[in-house]
Amino acid sequence: MVQYPQIDRTFAALGDPTRRSILERLGRGSATITELAEPFGISLTGCKKHVRVLEDAELVSTEKVGRARRCSVGPRRLEDVHEWTEMYRRMLDERPDRFGELLERTKGVPQ
Amino acid sequence: MVQYPQIDRTFAALGDPTRRSILERLGRGSATITELAEPFGISLTGCKKHVRVLEDAELVSTEKVGRARRCSVGPRRLEDVHEWTEMYRRMLDERPDRFGELLERTKGVPQ
Fold this sequence. Notes:
The first copy, chain A, is of the alpha+beta class. Chain A is 59% helix and 13% strand. Chain A has 6 helices and 3 strands.
């Protein structure tokens, strides 16, 4: 129905608690890979992999600053996820057969 | 920050276009596996796998009716995805350093 070229990657990137926490951390301000890895108790390599997944989904941007890599929130702000989710929730709210379907389901239930 | 036990599965389940289309289809009314598979041109086995992933995330419910398996939208209506997404987007909108960070970024750019 609603099509976004990026949305598969966005949803997949968000399906991991560490990646969501990285986004929440970067929402408060930019950080280096080292600063990101420390509070989560993950290796730098592990952290880099998570950042790469977020970067591929354009949820995070990175730039080399001296010897460090600085991460900040990317150009995408979950517009696609927001729109798809709202569309789906609205669809469920509005469907005319909702009550009928509930009735249908209870028909087979012994009283 | 916001914690939901189910949210990893929900996001992961939504990271596939066929699974999102199945949800959109079921949003319009229940359907058997065969009815679901046909318009997507996927095998019954492939369709069952997608439905299983959606069922594990409680986004779809199924019940055996005679020899068919009837699928309908599950008890979860993306409350977790909706709340996390809204929290993150609000966080980005409200952060006080947003303008400062933009200024900071342009400092290194040659004029």
